[in-house]
Amino acid sequence: MTTIERLAERLRDILGPRGVIDNPQDLRTYECDGLTGYRVTPALVVLPTSTHEVAEVVKACRDSKVPYVARGAGTGLSGGALPVEDGVVISLQRMRAILDVDPVDRQATVEPGVTNLAISRAAAPYNLYYAPDPSSQQVCTIGGNVAENSGGAHCLKYGFTTHHVLAVEVVLPDGTQATLGGYSPEVAGPDLRGLVIGSEGTLGIVTRVVVRLLRKPETVRTLLADFPSIEAAGNTVTDIIAAGIVPAAMEIMDRLAIEASEAAVGAGYTIGTPAALVVELDGPEDECAQLFDAVQELCRANSTTKIRVAADDTERAMIWTGRKAAFAAVGRISPNYFVQDGVVPRTRLAEALSRIGAMGAEAKLRVANVFHAGDGNLHPLVLYDESRGEHERAEELSKKIAELCVELGGSLSGEHGIGTDKACSMPVMFGEDDLATMDRLRRGFDPDGLCNPGKVLPTPRLCGEKPGPYRPHPLEAAGVIERL
Amino acid sequence: MSSKGSEASHGVDTAQVARPRDLREARDVMVDAARAGHRVLLRGSGTAQTWGAPVREVDLVVDTTGLDQIIAYNPADMTVAVGAGIRLQDLQSKLDRQRVSLDAARVAEGATVGGLLATADGGPIRATYGTLRDLVIGVIVILADGTVARSGGHVIKNVAGYDLAKLFSGSLGAFGLVAEVVLRVHPLPETSGTLAIPCDAPTAFRLASELLASPLEPVAIEWHAGRLLARFEGTQLGVANRLGKAQDLVQASPGFASASVERLTENDESAAWDAVAADVRGTEGDTVLRAGTRPREFPALVTRLDELSRQHDVDVRVVSSLGIGVHTVRIHGGQADQHAAVVDTWRSGVVQGGGSVTMHRRIAGLDDLIPSWGPAPQALSVLRSLKDGFDPDGRLAPGRFAPWW
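Structure tokens for the assembled complex are given below, as produced in the milestone run.
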């Protein structure tokens, strides 16, 4: 009997036959997350239904020295839920109960498989909502949001998952359970809850989440403004911030992104305009109206060519549909594409975009740009055609764009995470001592290295012996293996 | 710098003091201390040296107040990078119509940015902006062995790598030295105004719930000295309108005697919030605790404290951020045994209910009667394991978390 067969037997004892998947065809469903370029078929997939079962599974894996990877909806874009070969995937899809919505304390307690949007739906009868709203909120799970410290379009004003999660119950890599954080943000000692949020599933498995809920704002005002250049749109954003206004969201799309979005959903963006800026304000009604006028004035001062103000919720939803559709929509104008997720200091946006443009021209590839303009989080979409052998060139360009962001004083990732995708780029952003310290932290939780190994930090296996800017493995250079 | 007398940590007064002026000097100090096997106390302005358990004997005090540079201020990016030893009030005065959104009581005493992170301290606007854990976007720390490590960066949105700042938030100097900090700043609001509502604790909680259920967006809702204080920030027009609407809402609340609701602005408003800060700080001879609980437990906690206050004949004042269940309890007057009885009983109740309690200040002699920390948290094994990884010889702030480790 192999180690995996023995482990499978023990897992069936814990979870019953329906809780363990080991037939090759079904296992393939779990071979990748939203970053489909990386695929690994796991040895087993388990579907626990309680914290106790998760803990027993982790103990079994630990005893067998078999690595494991937690998985929510699998919508992540950095390969954070990529299975480990000969490892176990722990799917949290059967733990999807909303355990409590408390309108007095304005908190909800949920299991990790609950979707982001389901929390806001459950809170809606009390005029409350859960603020972080990643684009995938209809399907992505709160457990995945905790792993990635997810943001969304409104995080400029409202912050990220870490600002809205009060407590997490985790199964630690030693198989014990602990609640980190509490029902108040005031908790004695170091902030372990904050360490686990954004740790990409490498420090333990979250089995329960307490989130805080916010009162819905009295009013929301949204506009879509066209500009003669990306610079003019960017300057408007600078002026809005200089005026002391913190909009709920500010998004910019370029000509190519608009063209793609219009082809897909026809939300009424102006085809041919070099830049479109979406600004959304929310808050108490009279104050919001006052500031909304000021924003329009600033748009005009920066030579806007057209302002469309959402007259009602339907029109606002339409504007957002146009923005949120942009990713998938580039499929309409290109057979394949990569989504990038770098961050630059906001004041260097124009420089970043012009260099991305030049890099695209040099690589003979088109790049569409969609970005969260308030915080400098870029989502360049690198368009390519696999059938014309452009894949490698496109991947290289995408990687160079992320590393350019670091060079400009920013970050490899604003919200998608490092995962498998960018682990080998980490040495571009952090020094050896930084990474060694992060590894020290990781080992404090997971001394055996079984909890989602190979993610976040570069490993010799993944990146070559010496951590450093990515160099192809000798076998890869010789064409014996492929990076994917 | 450290205070003499009852509140001084044992042995700290006789230790050598190093005051590095830049990151390199700070690293050298930590490397030398590691080589010599010195036990080290990290200190900013020294406004929170009584937090947690008393530090046992140390050989070296590292005073961070020489690390007081503003390294980079980018108002258009809403970020500022500083040496961790800069006093927050000094930093605030250098920002252009922006602020670090933290109003902890100790700021007025000269608390440093690094100290405010290491204590995870916050004031009334914490309800909206959180503590420095929520505002720090990057750190450079120096570990016990002298390793200089960085996490985060200079951009307000960033998920690359583990966030070391979280480990240092609330660490009370036991995990390493915070050397540099990058902060997110917010626009300074045009104006503010506060509604003061005299009432008892259960009424305060009910009114706070109504205000929080309204779309009026109070930035802070605090219970203090028999009054509910609701603060609003924003534009002139917005604050005036919201104060008016909040007053209408309170006065329309059933069973509420409305005559004495006051709108505080300018000097009156500052005075009300200064009084809150004074009780949060306490004075020598007081015992001060900070607790976190479910928000809804507030009325019962106050009732319990009133009982204990009468039973043990001490004066007990409570400052509470009602929306988020953060309470500061000041025990004044009486002797150590009376304080010990109140702390022990009340703390057990809070911890049993899933809350937590940190001691900020103590009357002389309290440590002989009760431990500084209540029951250990569930994740103690992880905390110990991290402490072993970051400070294997236990040289940093020895005793600070006793009896947990």
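Confidence is low (pLDDT under 50) at residues 1-10 of chain B. The two ends of chain B are 27 Å apart (CA to CA). Further analysis is deferred to the final report.
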